[in-house]
């Protein structure tokens, strides 16, 4: 029973390190200018990428990309196929409300703080 809960928890949770990589990925700028805005749309940001594009991100290896795939599948999303255009993926987005669930907001507060600190460090 405990093992099943741990498996479900690992698929529904994205580690902070990976979330920050997604927030600062080049395609994330298509979603929003501010990193704090991007945090609310992590699923959409991840779905803009192909597997190869994520593998090319510094700090993400095959294990990290597999983690993203499982997290996305848990939430009913997937990565962009190689033959799919960015336009077609963006057209499927529903931006009425953030994709991050209410219960996940508490988990993301530390990630948001980390993103804000990183933004301040990068500012001239």
Report helical residue fraction.
Answer: 55-70%
User: How many strands, what sense, and barrel or not for the largest sheet?
Assistant: none
Gap from first CA to last CA: 51 Å
Average pLDDT, all residues: 80
Question: Regions with pLDDT < 50 over 5+ consecutive residues?
Answer: 102-107
Number of helices: 8
Principal-axes geometry comes out as: globular
User: SSE order in H/E notation?
Assistant: HHHHHHHH
Number of strands: 0
- Secondary-structure class: mainly alpha
**Rg, nearest Å:** 14 Å
What portion of residues belong to β-strands? Answer: under 5%
Descriptive notes:
The protein has 124 residues and is an all-alpha fold. 59% of the residues lie in helices and 0% in strands. The chain has eight helices and no strands. α2 packs across α8. The protein is globular. It starts with a helix and ends with a helix. About 5% of the residues have low confidence.
Summarize the structure.
This protein is an all-alpha fold and 124 residues long. It has eight helices and no strands.
